[in-house]
Structure formats: C-alpha cells, structure tokens
Specification:
This protein has 248 residues and is an alpha/beta fold. It has one domain: FAD/NAD(P)-binding domain (3-Layer(bba) Sandwich). Helix content is 20%, strand content 30%. The protein is built from 5 helices and 13 strands. It has helices spanning 16-27, 56-65, 70-77, 101-113, 183-189; strands spanning 2-12, 32-36, 50-52, 78-84, 94-99, 118-122, 125-131, 134-140, 144-153, 162-165, 168-171, 216-218, 241-243. A hairpin with a 3-residue loop joins strand 8 (134-140) and strand 9. The N and C termini lie far apart (59 Å).
Length: 248
C-alpha cells in the first residue's frame, strides 16, 4: 500500500451531484479529486436525458445561482426547450430541456478535466480511512491511498448495485458498468446506516423502427429560453418530441 496523493477534498462519484460538488470545491480553491468508476460515464444520463421540469427546474436554477455548471451545460447541449404547465397558473410553470445525452456528458467531462485544482481519476474505492471519527482518506482496489481533509459521497446507485430483470438478479451497475462491492461495508463499519433504493431504467428503441404517423408531434417553444443566468444563447435549432400512448 502506498500514498498516491493528498487532497483537501475527495468526491466519490461523478454523476450530476458529484460533478457539481467537485467543481464547487475546486473553484473555491481546494485541491480536489473527483473519483469515478468510469471516465466514460462522467455526468452520464442513463435514464431520462431531460433537465428541469417542476421541482428539478428549481434545483437547476439554485445550482446556477451558486455558480454551478448544470444550467450552463443544459443550455449548451439541449435539443429542445419547452415550457411546461402553461395551462395552469404561473406558480407551476417550469422549463424543461431535452438534452443530447452524449453531448451533455462529453461537455461536462471536458469542463471537469480543464478546471484548475481538480483532478479526475478512474478509481474503484474499497474503503474509507477513518481515525478518531474523522475522515483521513480512501483506499482503492489497487491498494492506493489518497489522503484528504474531507470526503463527499455521491455514489448514486452503484454501491453494491444489483441488476433485476424479471426474476433474475445479479451484481453490477447500470448498462454493464461495475458496482462498488466493498465501500458499503466500510460505511457500515463507520456506523453509517444504509438503505437500498431501486431505480428503473426504461428500454431503448431504435428511432428507425418507429411509425411516427401514429404519434402526436410535440415541438419545442419558439421563444429561446435558458436555465443559466450566465447563458447568452438567443437562438437554437430544436428537435421535436413525439407522444404515444399505451392501451389496456
């Protein structure tokens, strides 16, 4: 075992929450490590490639007011903007952006990799180093030690992840990714209570196999809108959504 680095802050997990935490830390001048299971999955949108809507749109605005990146990234990579709930009162109006999944992901990865004070590494973290009830660092599967003054856990659905398909269950992360099998035990040893959450990943379809004549087109709004108060985008090309319904 050897010490591979020392940071003010280590962020474990590079989904939406982890990315924002790492960028905030680095921009405040803290030396920061952002640890991810896969460099290909930074800010991955595995389920719904939309940003905003009721409640979530409020959160994106709050992140933006605090200097976050999600609103800027959504504005730069969206393929459709739409104002929701226009048939109701203004209190529940909310904008929603449909994002280009890969463009959103790659753009956020580029921002992280080019942010001062921020290192991004592909690591499987097995254990937290805790001494006298204080975090001191982490240990990876390759027996590397990274020391820190603070750690932020943003592990999402990857802690001892299980894939459930019908009656079949096996260990793993979404879409064939790895799951962190040992970190949960380290958290339990530290006296942290764990719970299991379930998410559902929708099936993907090939657009070339769809009959759009049986669907209802849903275009974006003509007025150009942005999530971020720092965005200056006034025009954008948009791609329509299509509505279809199930029956009994």
């Amino acid at each position: 075992m050897f010490i591979a680095g020392k940071y003010d802050v280590i962020v474990i997990g590079a989904g939406h929450a982890g990315v924002e935490a790492a960028l905030a830390s680095a921009r405040m001048g803290c030396s920061t490590l952002l640890a991810t299971l896969s460099m290909d999955n930074i800010a991955l949108m595995p389920c719904n490639p939309s940003v905003g809507g009721p409640a979530k749109g409020h959160l994106v605005r709050e992140l933006d007011a605090l200097g976050g990146q999600m609103g800027i990234n959504a504005d730069e990579t969206c393929i459709q903007f739409r104002m929701l709930n226009t048939g109701k009162g203004p209190a529940v109006h909310a904008i929603r952006a449909q994002a280009d999944k890969k463009h959103y992901q790659f753009r956020m990865k580029e921002v992280c990799e080019n942010t001062e004070n921020l290192d991004v590494k592909q690591l499987m973290i097995d254990k937290l180093i805790i001494e006298d009830n204080e975090i001191k660092g982490i240990i990876t599967e390759n027996m590397e030690q990274y020391l820190c003054n603070a750690a932020i856990l943003a592990t999402g659905t990857y802690l001892k992840g299980q894939i459930i398909i019908g009656l079949h269950t096996y260990s793993g992360g979404p879409s064939g990714q790895r799951s962190a099998e040992k970190l949960s035990q380290s958290l339990l040893d530290a006296g942290i209570k764990l719970m299991r959450f379930k998410t559902g990943t929708p099936a993907r379809v090939d657009a070339r196999t769809l009959d759009y004549d049986k669907m209802e087109i849903q275009p974006g709004n003509d007025e150009a809108r942005n999530f971020s108060f720092m965005s200056d985008i006034t025009t954008r090309e948009q791609t329509p959504c299509w509505l279809t319904y199930t029956n009994a």
